[in-house]
Amino acid sequence: MSAEQHHHPSPSQYWKIAGFLALVTAIEVALFYIDKELELGAMNAVLLVILSTLKFLTVVGWFMHLRYEKSLLSRFFAAGFALAMGCYVVVLAAMGVIVIRGA
Amino acid sequence: MADVHAVETDHEEHESTGVSNLKLGMWIFLSSEFLFFGALITNYLLYSNRGGFTGPYPAEVYDIPFTSVSSFVLLMSSLTMVLAHNAFSRGDQNGTRTWLFATAALGAVFLGGQVFEFTEFIVNYDMKLTTNPAASAFYVLTGFHGIHVAIGVLLLLSLWGISRARGGLSQKSGLNVEMVGLYWHFVDIIWIVIFTVVYLLSLPPA
Amino acid sequence: MTATAERPATSIFRRPRSKTGLWSWITTVDHKRIGIMYGYAAFFFFIVGGIEALLLRIQLSQANAEFLTAGAYNALFTMHGTTMVFLFVMPASAAFMNYMLPLLVGARDVAFPRLNALSWWVFFFGAIFMYSTFFFGTSLPPAGVEGVAGNLPEGGGPGSFNWLANSPDGGWFGYQPNAGPFYTPGTAMDFWAGGLQILGLSSLVSSVNFIVTTFNMRAKGMKLMRMPVFAWMTTVTAFLLLFSLPIIAVALFMVTTDRQFGSLFFAAQNGGDPILWQHLFWLFGHPEVYIIILPPMGIVSEVMPAFARKPLFGYSAVVFAGAAIAFLGFGVWAHHMFSSGITPVAQAAFGLATMTIAIPTGIKIFNWLGTLWGGRIRFTPAMLFAIGFIAMFTIGGLSGVTHSIVPADWQETDTYYVVAHFHYVIFGGAVFGLFSGLYYWFPKYSGRLLDEKLGKLHFWLTFIGFNMTFAPMHWLGLQGMVRRTWKYAPEMGLEGWNQVVTAGAFIIALAMLVFMYNWRKSRRRGTVAGMDPWDARTIEWMTPNPTPEHNFSESLEITSLDHFWHMKYEEDEEGRPVRRADADEILARLEDIGNNPREPIHLPSPSFFPFLIGLGVPLIFYGIVYHTSLVGKGLIVLGALIVLASAIGWGIEPADEPHYGHDDHDEEHGEEEVVEVHG
């Protein structure tokens, strides 16, 4: 029952992970302002999505311990995420928010 | 009609997957929450830069420095949550209690920030729920996230209260520390997505 | 009488302990009792929804009839659809899932017994909330619009059922902005939106519970691919519920905020987009179709092997086809919207995706036919309904494929052709499957058999009435009779078939009277079933009938698919099944041990809290409907306090207490569920 026996991170590692998360957030906010000056356009969006994905996966993997759990849980979790992405991207495409070239 | 023998045979049946019922149920429930917040975010993306509405669009009134700070607060509450769980698994009841309370407090700060933000938008910028569909979508999305945070704060405070009243949490309630933790981190990752997609990346119509 | 006992200080209330009487039902966490309550509630709403349908049919039996006003007609078709989908078919499936799932996988109960009770009570009070619209709801004409026929409380002669116009009248699909605050003011649609929200909450809790049950509670040796098909379909359905309900929850919240708090999501005149509602509704609504049909598919997959005396043909293909239907079911929603102006690319894509669903469905149908082929078929009522299911469902499936062809769909949209299609699938499919299950598993509930003669009469009346009712709707639809319209002109030439349809509807009603008589008669005085009345294959028959409270007296060890059959039968040299010499002894031993467990058995303890939370939730929704008044605000606070206090009580109370006043109180065992509140 207790999943916490095997090499879970120690408190000091948790602090380091939190420091990393804070750093990424700072970069994100910085990007927001850099974009205002330099007009990065799509580049800005891509970078921000990558950075927030990094934060997302860090919290899920380490804080929620998903990387230490049975793969069944990852599969359930990924299924919900993938289904939501799939369905809602199609809704946005069908409603003309996401424009598919040639369609 | 009661005996502990039968309980033990029962117990083996309980976990065909090797994951406790509670944890499996929690992860399954959380996976469905993606569909919930996904619909709300979709709703926001549909309206956030559709032209022709009257009144300010959400993206015109965001206070990014302020929201960055409250996002940081929520992110750090995930740290305190995981420290609470860690303290519990080391048998440190006092540490658990402290970190649980710290998490609830950070959550409350985040909620306070949200109340301040909403008030600011409504009073200073006159962007109400009824102003335009983009504003409606913004308030309902962040509002539902706020409700999730509030429920999390209540759960944390009840664990903290039980721990105080009984001088510690039993092994059984310990599983609840883990479950509340999962819920709490989930609310945090939803905010990670909202912060990027709704605040940093959204533009008012050109 | 009191149902309580002395309890230690961990509980707010003394723990309920009586095993009979009203309080035992209110506090029960036994999956079988919960299943029975779901079943009776579902049947009650089947009758209510049926009466609504009969009123609609009386109105349509003559051209230009004046039996109902337009408003009453709108309200009746709305409530007929809503009732049959959410208050009849879904809870009827939930009844079978609750009662049978633990028995089919060899467990003592579901994973979270108290959450199971919560699902039921939330459903129960949600249904009451929904129907209380008849007493409290109002339906007014759009602001500034005078004299809309039938939407006004006055108008219509006596006996025209105009009082019904005070119930929701925006269709079960609640299309916006028609069902929004401008075109449908008044509180009736708020009851509809709130009611569906509550019912969705109930189903969401159930879905988590059933998934954990199948994944974690299976008996030893019961691998996933040894589970009976109904257990599989329950799991697949639970996943569909899990992933589709949050979508409708959001959509309904948006309707509620539009109607109550003035948000503008669907207000077309202010820039809102009604098409968004259609996407969100059908993104839920199409999986919902499979939520309705997959459990009955599971039921007939249990019934047919039992009465064909053959194993299910292609077990793994049936299981995978079920999962494939569910998966594809999330990718076809826009075929409900071909006439809503979506792009040609979207139309082509969703048309093609819809056609692919025919493949796994066809696989299932051929597997059922393969099961019957060469079997020694016994035409019991259960089997007749199962065979009727295949035939009727196939017709409904084929007319469904015609909708995937976009130009054809444009002709069919909003005509009676569509009504015919989905009744062939839902009535000819789901309802036939559910009746099949009732005849098959009735002994598990009562220990007796439903009368076979009356059962056959019930089947044939249903079958004839059903086809008279719904087959002519195909041609009525193709002739251009539109849905949701309360009158048609005599020159349209529709009257003849409409009279056949109405006559058929009354034959179905007669069939249901026969069934109710049979149920009443057989429950007390039917033939005693014994332990294995059908010479069945699956493990739910390895315990006496009616099912003892503890389900199984000893832990099972499953060695194969159709485990029970293999205990009774072995193969001769030519591979034919031969009943083992000691089969009757095995049965006698199982029956004896089932009724007289050798060891004391420990079961989850009853609880007051699921009932209390179920009571509190609708109070919040009443409060939201009347939130502008002080009473409404008070109700929100009161409801929230009841839910919160009960949740805390629930959290403190252990899931099971081995014995009141027993020193040897096992602290380690039992899950203390975290209170899950879905925002």
CATH topology grouping of chain B: Four Helix Bundle (Hemerythrin (Met), subunit A)
Number of structural units classed as domains of chain A = 2
Q: Outline of chain A, from the CA principal axes?
A: flat
* β-strand number of chain B: 0
| Euclidean distance between termini CA atoms of chain B | 73 Å
Distance between the termini of chain A: 52 Å
Low-confidence stretches of chain B: 1-13
Principal-axes geometry of chain B comes out as elongated
The level of helicity of chain B is: over 70%
* Secondary structure: number of strands of chain A: 0
- Return the structural class of chain A: mainly alpha
| Largest interface (CB < 8 Å) | B-C, 63 and 71 residues
- The CATH class of chain B is identified as Mainly Alpha
Structural class of chain B: mainly alpha
Which sequence of SSEs, written as H and E, runs from N to C of chain B?
HHHHHHH
Low-confidence stretches of chain A: 1-5
Instruction: Return the CATH architecture of chain B.
Output: Up-down Bundle
Could you characterize what this model shows?
The complex is a heterotrimer of chains A (103), B (206) and C (679). Chain A has 103 residues and is mainly α. The termini of chain A are far apart. Chain A has helices at 11-38, 42-63, 71-94. Chain A has 2 domains: 8-69; 70-103. Chain B has 206 residues and is mainly alpha-helical. Chain B has helices at 4-13, 21-48, 58-61, 64-89, 93-125, 133-166, 171-200. In chain B, helix 5 runs antiparallel to helix 6. The termini of chain B are far apart. Chain C folds into 2 domains: 32-604, Up-down Bundle (Cytochrome C Oxidase, Chain A); 605-679. A two-stranded antiparallel sheet of chain C has the order 1-2. In chain C, strand 1 and strand 2 form a beta hairpin. The two termini of chain C are 38 Å apart. Classes of the chains: A mainly alpha (103), B mainly alpha (206), C mainly alpha (679). Chains in contact: A-B, A-C, B-C. At the B-C interface, helix 1, helix 2, helix 6 and helix 7 of B face helix 6, helix 7 and helix 19 of C.
